Protein: DNA polymerase sliding clamp
Amino acid sequence: MFKATIDADTLKSSIEALSVLVDEARFKISPEGFTVRAVDPANVAMVSFELGSNAFDEFAADDCEIGLDLSKISDIFSVAGKDNKVSMELDEMSQKMSLHLGGLSYTLALLDPSTIRAEPRIPQLELPAEVVLNGKDLQRAVKAAEKISDHMLLGVEDDAFYMEAEGDTDRVRLDIPRDQLIDLRAGDARSLFSLDYLSDIVKPASKSNEVTVEIGKDFPVKIGFTIANGVGKIGYLLAPRIESD
Amino acid sequence: MFKATIDADTLKSSIEALSVLVDEARFKISPEGFTVRAVDPANVAMVSFELGSNAFDEFAADDCEIGLDLSKISDIFSVAGKDNKVSMELDEMSQKMSLHLGGLSYTLALLDPSTIRAEPRIPQLELPAEVVLNGKDLQRAVKAAEKISDHMLLGVEDDAFYMEAEGDTDRVRLDIPRDQLIDLRAGDARSLFSLDYLSDIVKPASKSNEVTVEIGKDFPVKIGFTIANGVGKIGYLLAPRIESD
Amino acid sequence: MFKATIDADTLKSSIEALSVLVDEARFKISPEGFTVRAVDPANVAMVSFELGSNAFDEFAADDCEIGLDLSKISDIFSVAGKDNKVSMELDEMSQKMSLHLGGLSYTLALLDPSTIRAEPRIPQLELPAEVVLNGKDLQRAVKAAEKISDHMLLGVEDDAFYMEAEGDTDRVRLDIPRDQLIDLRAGDARSLFSLDYLSDIVKPASKSNEVTVEIGKDFPVKIGFTIANGVGKIGYLLAPRIESD
Structure:
């Protein structure tokens, strides 16, 4: 059993955050809310997503797992106006979900969860440095780097967070000192990442005023932020690239 | 003889409404105004258009018929600013029309009306159900349906107007009860239409607060609305598709 | 030696004005400021550009010449916000330029000026007619002409400036009488130009309230305007096409 009502905008942000890595996802539903863990087809990045039942106006659910085609849900929201509520109800017999949104009623066939790649195990990493900053700053550096290179360094140095990209002849760097960051736990950190992934990930992150970036030395980066006033949590884990120099 | 001045915006809306079905049109001009009747190349939809002489700031005409390339006129208006007046004058000798618009003077060669498909006979249909609603509601349902299918049902049931589309696995439906419609004459009505045509037709219709939709049982739909404060009338007639089930 | 700080917007406008004709340019730097003279690859149009040292917040330079890839600079500014200052510093040893802009630091490799086409000699032309008008008016006529033809006449007749384009069957003309111009020095002037070039040139010109157009009879046209409150000057010289009639 699953029946819920939520701000269309919150659900839309959630779907967008997942869509940057996967097209289909298994949603684990329990009385406590939703969780999704997914890994991109190339095994380079993972996303974990939680949306507590208190993010919903109405929420009633037993434990169950459903498979959703994220692009179909995005299509539905592309027609929705602002300030809409969406209500959802699962019909377990027919394996369909009904959605009501701005007067429109949708009946969507669910995907068989067993046909969707299994949930990845999210590795427990203790990363030495942690930076908290505005998502816009992160996005600005990534956009600048894309003009020059296809990968980007993230690191901590001299009590500042830096992002740097180097092309064949040119270089761009953004240093953000501690006093311009929301928070900084300095540590030995410098890792290189693919801009293909980073630019997808910073799109949803750029809407958050407070993005947490955890980095190490040639280790994966963790990029996390909340949605729906902290009730929803989105976290990405992106594998590093090897620096050749 | 034909000489007239009109709001550029009114003429632009008129041309757009015709352009959804045809590229070239025969305009019948008389002292009472303009009329156009045209059928799309595939014979699936017709448009009828009337613009009374009182829609014009200035209008002087004898009976005549001219052929216009609608895309050329659209090009001209794409350069025009808002709040412009356009004045037109026919030169019968050279078969050219001059247009003055925002300081620019155009001289356009007319098309020989005999090279444009003849006016269709618009069938007189008595359709059992009639719905009057905001064009935006019509467009919203059509946009939602396009994501799922290439055809759409329009019908009346239980004192409500409904639009429904069904894809291979999914379904979307919009029910608008009588109290959310401007007017409803209930009757036995349920017909299926091509979304290719419907989505073109609802584009100009969506700008009108009051669109009249007349439907029957496996019969063509009539979609009508006015422009220029009621002085211009646009009506579409779209043939139904056969429901296979 | 070269070190300077300037409004990002002023530098951006300058680069855009050059970019309509060339991808790479030689900048002559002196204690008085910047100058660039360049000719397009097809030898049809020239651009001359001057930006005085007083356009800068800070400016210190010896005589030198640097080669810049304009598209790289445009990329950098595409990331910049409004109201930014950009500071530049030349490193002659490494032949690199560093730019600081909105917190970002760029290090750009310079091009070897000798690999960039030499500065053209700008011919000294005494053109009989001169028109001063708003850049928007010029752009409007060019946009209208593009719909109809690939070349356009500019001329002066009966105390008015006119622009005219003629397609296979259609014609568009804009006449601007003296009282709607900022200034007019009438003279024998009527020349035909390629709209490919004119439409590129009017893009930056359209942002200026006061564009000077000098024309003759089958002679090149000079189109000039200022930026940065008159401290920067941009001038184009476009060769005429032969009228075949």
Remarks:
- The two ends of chain A are 56 Å apart (CA to CA).
- The helical segments of chain A are 8-19, 70-79, 135-146, 195-205.
- Chain A has a mean pLDDT of 94.
